[in-house]
UniProtKB/TrEMBL annotation:
Transmembrane segments: none annotated. NCBIfam families: PRK02487.1-5. This is UPF0303 protein GO755_09190. HAMAP family: UPF0303.
């Protein structure tokens, strides 16, 4: 994994994967697409989509535990704080050899800078919510969200996808 290239690709994802409109129905359909994408991999995750602080979609697949729900909360807190993907924040911390506690006083019990939470942006309006999954290795959690969003938003995945390697 090349941190510099990954961070550039993550910034591009956050710039390109934005909505013109986002509704409760959008959240439901995206949540179901995430569920289908993970099931197609033969895996299990918990999925959470929130819009302006309101939960619009939640599903815990068989095989997940309450620990996955806590990971969702902690990853979501990172995105709510920085308005960036939790994976991007984690890689920036790694690149700078620091932690959220050292950088911003944010405790690990409430903040997890690990892949799996992506910001919801509406063009012309700004940051409005989060899409989070937990249950796969962090890079895969992140990649599943990006794949589903790229398809939904008609963005070329080949230009946005991270490599599959850790």
């Amino acid at each position: 994994m090349d941190l510099t290239n990954d961070l550039a690709r993550l910034a591009l994802q956050e710039e390109q994967l934005q909505f013109d409109v986002f509704t409760n129905d959008t959240a439901w359909q995206l949540g179901m697409r995430l569920k289908d994408a993970v099931e197609a991999r033969g895996k299990a995750v918990a999925i959470d989509i929130q819009f302006t602080g309101q939960p619009l979609f939640f599903f815990a697949m068989p095989g997940t535990t309450p620990d996955n729900v806590d990971w969702i909360r902690r990853k979501r807190n990172v995105v709510l704080h920085y308005h960036r993907s939790s994976y991007a924040i984690g890689l920036e911390l790694k690149k700078n050899q620091t932690t959220l506690l050292d950088k911003a006083g944010l405790a690990v019990r409430d903040y997890a800078p690990h892949g799996g939470c992506f910001p919801i942006w509406i063009r012309g309006s700004g940051f409005v919510g989060t899409i989070t999954i937990s249950g796969l290795p962090q890079r895969e959690d992140h990649n599943v969200i990006v794949e589903v969003l790229a398809t939904w938003l008609n963005c070329p995945l080949s230009e946005l996808a991270l490599s599959d390697t850790n």
